[in-house]
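Example record

The entry below shows one chain as it appears in the dataset: sequence first, then structure tokens.
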Amino acid sequence: MLNKIIKSEITHNRNSFTAFILSFFFTGLGQIYNGDLLKGFVLFILRILPLLLIPLLIFFEDINLYINIIVFIMVFHIFIWLGAPIEGLLYARKIKKISLNRYNSVIFYSIYGVFNFFILVFSIQLVLLFYSIEKVGTDCMNPTLWEDEYILINRSENVEYTMGDVVTYIVRGEHRVGRIMARSNELVSFSGCVCIINETPLLISIFSDTELNLMGVENSEYLFSEINETRKYPIIGISSRSKRVKKDRPIFVKENNFFIAFDNRMKETFYEIININSITGRVEGIIYSNKLKRIFRKSYL
């Protein structure tokens, strides 16, 4: 007599809302809940790996691309974070039922969730060792940086500061932002908004319509461009040809100091000398602004 062995497979319903929630809080867990272990791990790696690559940018020579690369990584990270739960929800609705695997258990889900959480926290903390996002709290750097805009700060110890860089620093416990104008052992003075370094004035001119549009600023009689070595950026001030202008006495920058000036030179006090060690980072660009075209702009052209 021929024995016939009939195998019956037990299937279990998948709740699309559960798949969405699991992947929203723990990337890839919704996919594992739906019976696809490989897809879950791939999505998790795609979210974490770009964050782990950010610290490597300190070895990237072309600093003009810092803001572009980091913004791309952040957008990609958010895309995976929000895309994974949507994929999990749609797939659960499509398959409706699965055959349970060994990993479809509360114990495995819990272990994966804890692992997911700690790896994500570690990755974010690693990024924050090198970069931070800060809110501009003053109009002293207008028109380059507007008040209430959010800027990306490169805090790496390997940053080499150059003339024209915008930096954040601390003076008497107060966090400030300004532009490096001169190094140690240099002589600096101002005639109106014109900066004079070692008796040589920096080049002052006006912007083209294309440049104004690129920066997202409006032209005015007080708006000028200034070039300090390789950096070209906007400043606000009174022309040195104005009758109201008085030439300041030269200031000698001592050893281990930087001469810092604000781009808004209509301020009563628009420059100061700081110790190099008080600098906390270099401004790479604007992360958020109320004016769309100013987002992702660097602090120079």
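Notes for this example: DSSP finds six helices and 16 strands in the chain. The radius of gyration is 27 Å.
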